[in-house]
Design a protein that fits this description.
The complex is a heterodimer. Chain A folds into two domains: 204 residues, Metalloenzyme, LuxS/M16 peptidase-like (Cytochrome Bc1 Complex, Chain A, domain 1), CATH 3.30.830.10; 206 residues, Metalloenzyme, LuxS/M16 peptidase-like (Cytochrome Bc1 Complex, Chain A, domain 1, 2-Layer Sandwich), CATH 3.30.830. Chain A is 38% helix and 18% strand. By secondary structure, chain A is α+β, with helices and mostly antiparallel strands. Chain A has a six-stranded mixed β-sheet, with helices on both faces. A six-stranded mixed β-sheet of chain A has the order 12-13-11-14-10-15, with helices on both faces. A two-stranded antiparallel sheet of chain A has the order 5-6. The longest helix of chain B has 20 residues. Helix content of chain B is 40%, strand content 18%. Chain B has two domains: 207 residues, Metalloenzyme, LuxS/M16 peptidase-like (Cytochrome Bc1 Complex, Chain A, domain 1, 2-Layer Sandwich), CATH 3.30.830; 186 residues, Metalloenzyme, LuxS/M16 peptidase-like (Cytochrome Bc1 Complex, Chain A, domain 1). In chain B, strand 4 and strand 5 form a beta hairpin. By secondary structure, chain B is of the alpha+beta class. The chains are: A alpha+beta, B alpha+beta. At the A-B interface, strand 1, helix 2, strand 8, helix 3 and helix 4 of A face helix 1, strand 1, helix 3, strand 5 and helix 4 of B.
């Protein structure tokens, strides 16, 4: 079959005499126009139990990606049970059908496959990546894990110990400490976004088999899921295969439906300092509550953030890294989720330049509120949109795009109109969303560093009231 | 076994749990190779699946070529390659690429430095212009100030990736313990702070002239390109880059450990960690592939021997990993394990040593080896999915070309693993992992004040 691109004989061409003239380097080549984005068709069908199946054929490499996506995630953790979705997903592979954890792992490894189950904020998924020649062998294992987990008590205890130790190790990582602290001070204990997806030592210690079974039943069900198949398959052949494995799946219980409480962004500027004695860098994170993925400002925000801190030439990276050399890299992010996720600018900066770096952060956060020059705007729009085809290169890439479309209910033309929507963003749009969402006087500032070295000069900047947090206040008591 | 691609889809219909899964088809990457008069070796690979192209340049120089008191220089130099050149003003390298929808990066290892640029295919010429200009005219715009600016960035890279990272100093310490001071793998690629401070503009000029000649580099152009057009554009933009002498080959004496080198360092961490390391055969030498499989039998997946005992059964470790770190002058085999709270590195080391000795005495089961080979085989297919960037097809063609002379060495590489027998695995463990000739490094948590 010609669609397998591999089988062509390589040709060797010996060194040849050149007739090319020296190029005129004073006339550098200019970029070409955007390429037409030709996306592979999505074959949408339903299995006999109503489970939607989306198939995308990608006949490049003989592999397949199969994702069963459930539309419940860590945001659906019940109050007091933070970490349950994540724990439940992790247990799926630890015993399913008639197989033990070790038997599942052995069978999957023997097939050269990868199988994983994880919960993210707005979805959970069981994902299989496998050479297509072994797809039929791997699918029953995937179906066991997704549909027939057994939640053995001893595996639950193993996982509990693993997770408590991971949480303990999180205290070592300055970037982790600053991210966890930042979410906590913005969202508080009462909002799911204020606690790591894994939960806390306190909650992890409480989970029992019944919690996991109950939560599993509420999240993994054919009326709350979609199956994606991407790879070197045809819809005609692969749909009967997945029908056999997933078509008999029935729902039990009710869909998990936790509502996130409303939360107000900061009304003033506040600093939170966390001591890391001897740290050669300070981890800085500045920001507020941003927007949900459903924001009508998605495209202007994407362009604005690219200019502020979303690319190498962005203002934050150029200033803090290239001009001043304070850091290996500075960036900014709008973390868009089902609810309004955080917006932040961040960098690890050398300890003795911490206060100088803070000043430059605020110079850029204030600078982006002013009109953006035309060439900078054009560059950002091109950077985001012209390389968009890269987002559809591999089976994993395509399956992630499809997951986004499903989880955030993006319109069918989202991908095909993406380039056009980015290119339509104007300088006025960028300024409007910057002024609306980047409010440098209403932010939380979290700094993890050697306070004996950095605190006096941070205080001298008079950025706002300062609160000191201990590691225990950030993570909860040590496991 | 060779199997035509056309048979592949039929295999999907085989019953579940066939004992011997169907072998995937042979891997071949079609390419065209030519050499410019200035000595630059060029490889072109077409892949029209998305309208993107990649330009991947390898300079055959890494930190192993550094001089005394100038450690970290090859990597600092890599940073300077993005700072503009004769016809590209400072800052313009990235600005031009981003304006074309392009992305780029570079990395430095012991033996090589690589650079890639991914662009929409219709901007391939922009990428070739930029790549050729820095090969031909880097020094035209280089100043001591440029060096100073990136020196600060690189020092912060070191702080972020080593000094301020949990267990970050262990990797540096391991290299120092494995290799004598005169061996170029003794010092870390990132370099020592004092040496980064000492690096000068004059060093930059000398390094460029010695190691950045076209004859010491190889270029891969891949993606949605037509071979004839790609060749014409490469010839156009690289034809004026002046030839230079190829650097002298390195003559590095072989190294061996004569006994156990033992050390404990402290770090700002919650849990201790154990590192065991051996000096092992170089990349692609006999023993190299077998040691990859030894690593997998010991610590690849839940059923591997060390994971199953330490993490799954005894539950005294949080993690364990093993790998053969292959390189051009010498490799190292490493086992790394973290004890759970209440347990010690000594407890872990006792079990690890028992399992190494067991594997040295008795071959693994056929199932264990097949499981590892199947995973290796699958990884070769997964490596075919992406064209550009680190580890994409272009980067792999360049790697195989650099280390074997054959860009399409995929099947030969995979054949090394398929040829292994279970006794090869135990023999490699016995020959290359002696318990009395190795490095034993422990990281212990700093005492709280």
């Amino acid at each position: 079959m010609r669609k397998h691109a591999f089988v062509v004989v390589a040709s060797f061409v010996a060194s040849v005499a050149l007739t090319a003239q020296a190029p005129d380097r004073t006339k550098p080549p200019q970029p070409g126009p955007p390429a037409a984005l030709k996306l592979p068709a999505i074959h949408k069908q339903k299995l006999s139990n109503g489970l939607p199946v989306w198939v995308v054929e990608l006949h490049k490499v003989p592999v397949a990606q199969v994702n069963l996506v459930s539309f419940s995630g860590t945001a659906n953790d019940p109050p007091g049970k933070y970490g349950l979705a994540s724990f439940t997903a992790a247990l799926l592979e630890e015993g399913a059908g008639s197989r033990s954890a070790l038997e599942i792992a052995d069978a999957i490894d023997y097939l050269g496959a990868d199988l994983g189950a994880t919960a993210s904020i707005d979805a959970s998924a069981v994902r299989l990546h496998v050479p297509v020649a072994r797809l039929a062998d791997a699918l029953p294992l995937m179906a066991d894990v997704a549909l027939r987990p057994t939640f053995p008590k001893d595996e639950l205890e193993r996982q509990r110990l693993q997770r408590l130790t991971s949480l303990l190790q999180g205290r070592d990582e300055p970037a982790t400490i600053s991210a966890v602290a930042f979410s906590r001070v913005l969202y508080g204990k009462g909002h799911r976004y204020g606690t790591p997806q894994m939960g806390t030592a306190e909650t992890i210690k409480t989970f029992g088999v019944d919690d996991l079974r109950g939560f599993y039943a509420s999240m993994f069900r054919p009326d709350n899921a979609t199956l994606l198949v991407v790879g070197d398959v045809t819809a005609d052949r692969v749909v009967p295969l997945v029908e056999k494995q997933f078509g008999g799946w029935k729902a039990t219980g009710a869909v998990a439906a936790e509502k996130l409480p409303a939360v107000e962004p900061p009304k003033t500027r506040q600093l939170f300092l966390i001591d890391k004695p001897g740290a050669p860098q300070s981890q800085i994170r500045i920001g507020s509550i941003g927007v949900p993925r459903s924001t009508p400002d998605y495209f202007p925000l994407t362009v604005m953030n690219t200019i502020l801190g979303g690319s190498f030439t962005s203002r934050l990276n150029n200033n803090l890294r290239e001009v001043h050399g304070y850091t290996y890299g500075a960036n900014s992010t709008f973390d868009m989720r089902g609810g309004a996720g955080p917006f932040f600018a961040a960098a690890g900066v050398q300890t003795d330049k911490t206060s100088e770096a803070l000043t430059e952060f605020f110079n850029e956060l204030n600078g982006i509120l002013k009109p953006v020059p035309a060439d900078e705007l054009a560059r950002a729009k091109n950077y985001v949109s012209l390389r968009y085809p890269s987002a559809f290169e591999t089976t994993g890439d395509i399956s992630r795009r499809l997951e986004d479309q499903l989880v955030y209910r993006l319109p069918d033309d989202h991908f095909t109109s993406y380039v056009q929507n980015i290119q339509a963003v104007s300088a006025a749009d960028v300024q409007r969303v910057a002024q609306k969402y980047v409010q440098p006087d209403k932010v939380a500032i979290v700094i993890v560093g050697d306070l004996s070295a950095i605190e006096p000069r941070i205080r001298a900047l008079n950025l706002g009231p300062i609160t000191k947090l201990t590691i225990d206040e950030v993570f909860g008591p040590k496991p | 076994m060779r199997r035509a691609a056309a048979l592949l889809l039929l295999a999907v219909g085989t019953p579940a749990f066939a004992q011997t899964p169907a072998a995937p088809p042979k891997i071949e990457l079609p390419y065209t190779q030519f050499t410019l008069p200035n000595g630059l070796r060029v490889i072109v690979h077409e892949d029209h699946s998305i309208p993107m192209a990649t330009v991947n340049m390898w300079y055959h120089v890494g930190s192993a070529r550094e001089k005394e008191k100038r450690t970290g220089f090859a990597h600092l130099f890599e940073h300077l390659m993005f700072m503009g050149s004769g016809h590209v003003k400072p800052g313009e390298f990235d600005e031009r690429l981003e304006a074309a929808g392009g992305d780029n990066n570079g990395s430095t290892e012991n033996d090589r430095t690589n650079y890639w640029i991914n662009v929409p295919a219709n901007s391939l010429e922009v990428a070739l212009f930029l790549e050729s200009d820095r090969m031909g005219y880097l020094l035209d715009t280089m100043t001591p100030k440029t060096v100073d600016a990136q020196r600060d960035v690189v020092k912060n890279e070191r702080r972020q990736s080593y000094d301020n990272r949990p267990y970050g100093m262990a990797e540096i310490t391991l290299g120092e313990m494995l290799y004598p001071p005169a061996h170029p793998y003794h010092w870390p690629v990132i370099g020592y702070m004092d040496d980064l401070t000492a690096a000068s503009y004059e060093d930059v000029v000398a390094f460029f002239k010695t190691y950045y000649a076209p004859s010491n580099a190889s270029l891969v152009v891949a993606g949605d390109v037509d071979t004839a057009t790609a060749r014409r554009l490469v010839e156009k933009w690289f034809s004026d880059v002046k030839a230079g002498p190829a650097p002298q080959p390195m003559t590095i004496p072989g190294v061996a450990l004569s006994g156990v080198q033992k050390k404990t360092i402290t770090d700002r961490v919650q849990l201790p960690r154990l590192y065991l390391a051996w000096l092992t055969p170089r990349h692609f030498e006999p023993g190299d592939a077998a040691l990859d499989m030894v690593a997998d039998v010991l610590a690849g997946g839940k059923n591997s021997r060390l994971y199953k005992r330490l993490v799954y059964d005894m539950q005294i470790a949080q993690d364990v990993s093993a790998f053969q770190a292959s390189a051009a002058l010498s490799s190292s085999f490493q086992i790394v394990a973290t004890p759970r709270p209440g347990h010690t590195v000594a407890e872990l080391q006792k079990v690890i040593d028992e399992e190494i000795q067991k594997l040295q005495r008795e071959p693994p089961t056929a199932h264990e080896l097949e499981r590892s080979v199947n995973q290796t085989e699958a990884s070769f297919y997964n490596r075919m999915e992406r064209d550009g960037g680190f580890g994409g097809k272009a980067d792999q063609l360049n790697a195989y070309f650099t280390y074997t002379g054959d860009p399409d060495w995929f099947n030969e590489d995979l054949a090394r693993y398929r040829a292994l027998s279970v006794t090869d695995i135990s023999a490699a463990a016995a020959q290359f992992l002696p318990l009395d000739k190795r490095v034993e490094l422990a990281v212990e948590p700093q005492k709280q004040p």
